[in-house]
Amino acid sequence: MSESPAGVPLLVAGYTDQVQQDGPGGGGSDVERSLMAEADAGPRLLASEALRLRQVVRRLSAGHALVLLRLDQVVAFDAAGLGLLLGLHRLARLNGAGLVLVRPTPRLMAALRRRGLHRVLVVDGSAPDVR
Length: 131
Prior knowledge:
The protein is α/β, with parallel strands linked by helices. Helices cover 30% and strands 34% of the residues. The protein has three helices and nine strands, in the order βββββαββαβαβ. The strands form two sheets. Strands 1, 2, 3, 4, 6, 8 and 9 form a seven-stranded mixed beta sheet that branches. α1 packs parallel to α2. The radius of gyration is 16 Å and the shape is globular.
């Protein structure tokens, strides 16, 4: 496990994929892109954490096809934090990656469901089903 510049523990899976990219001479060159990277969101999903989480997702989505954001430690969140999840989803897609919310806490999952965000965001199925 390594740590991002923002101090968030990162676990990068060892899977890689060969991506064909056009080089300057018209010929392609193989570029390795890791398939997955995982980051822990930490205990707070608040507006004050937005910059830190955006930096992490931007960095990981630039080099990985899939970013797993662990939410099992989130104890505090607000409406801005839920909006942040939408923004992180969009940021990952702009970088050509997918974002998966992994193991959200029951309270967070209930809030995602109440607002219909579970239909927009990809949420890992191992979370308890709370309605």
